[in-house]
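Hey, sorry to bother you again with one of my protein questions. A protein chain has come my way and I'm curious about its shape. It would help a lot if you went through both lines with me. I owe you a coffee for this, so here goes:
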Amino acid sequence: MTEKSNQPEDCDAVLGRQVTAPASGVVLGGLEGIKQRLVSPAIPQRVAALKEALQYGKVGLDLVIQILENESPQLQQSAYYQMRQQTKEKAEQALRERRKVYGMELVERYYTAGERNFQKADLSEADLSEVDLRGVNLSEADLSGAILNASVLAYPTNLSKANLSWADFSEALLGGADMTGALLMEANLTQADLSGANLSGAILLKAILIGTSLAGTYLREANLRRANLIGADLSRCCLIGADLSGANLREAIALRADLREIIISRADLSGVNLSQANLSQAKLSQVNLRRTDLKQATLSEVSLSEVDLSWSDLRETNLSNLNLSHINLRAANLNGADLSGTNLTKANLNGADLSSANLTGAMLDEAVYNAATKFPLGFRFPGG
């Protein structure tokens, strides 16, 4: 786009050179004409003048910025849009510097005025911290890098398919929000409340969810690879088919969570409370489950490879017909567990408590045990 000088046009009705003005040339042209149209009582003329102003380089850009600072929401929105369309380096730089401020101001102004539809809006890097945006439609919006800490985006807020990567949602309230298919790569959700939210199909790769409330949250087939979930509350959470490979869930609570068909490899789940959780058909490989609470958990058809279950609580857990060969069960509490038909070949049972366990048909070939291992009363170890 060619920048114009601060000179009148040939067809200016008042300041133009000695050229007959056309019938349509009834308003002042050039930058002076734009200035006058920007204060016109007719909103359409002022909006049209904004676009022309950006053809005058820095001087025109300054006019647009003045509109952003002082004018009505309608003109502010138009000015903001025109700046977004401006490709020149100076305009882009000005936009980067001011986006955080105007993103917040525009949203707050329109939200206060009753506007709730911000679908596909560009609010990247905007500062929306501590703002109540409950019920806003931000589906497919770009909030990448935005600051939303302590903001309120709870039900019925719509963030489906929004780009929330690198955004700061620490301590934000997102309970019940629709976040299906949202992109939350490396987003900070520390101590945020996402209880009851729908994040099915969401991508939370390397997201930070330390101490986050995910109770009753729907995370079916979500990508949580390498996510940090230390101390997170996943009670009653639905994680069917989700991928938590490389994730850190130390000391997390997943009481009664639905973890069917979940995929977890090379992850740390030490100290996690999985009591009464459903891990049917889950695939766990190279997972640290030390001191994990798995009592009364459902583990039917679960695949366990190179898993460490030492010191874990497996009381009254159904482990029948599972392949636990080579598994480390050192000092694990298996009191009352069902191990009928279970393959415990070469398993480490040193110090494990199997008192009252059902070992009918269990395969214990080359299993390792010691004097501290407790077997059911009257049980005779094969070959012993």
Q: What stands out?
A: The longest strand covers residues 263-265.
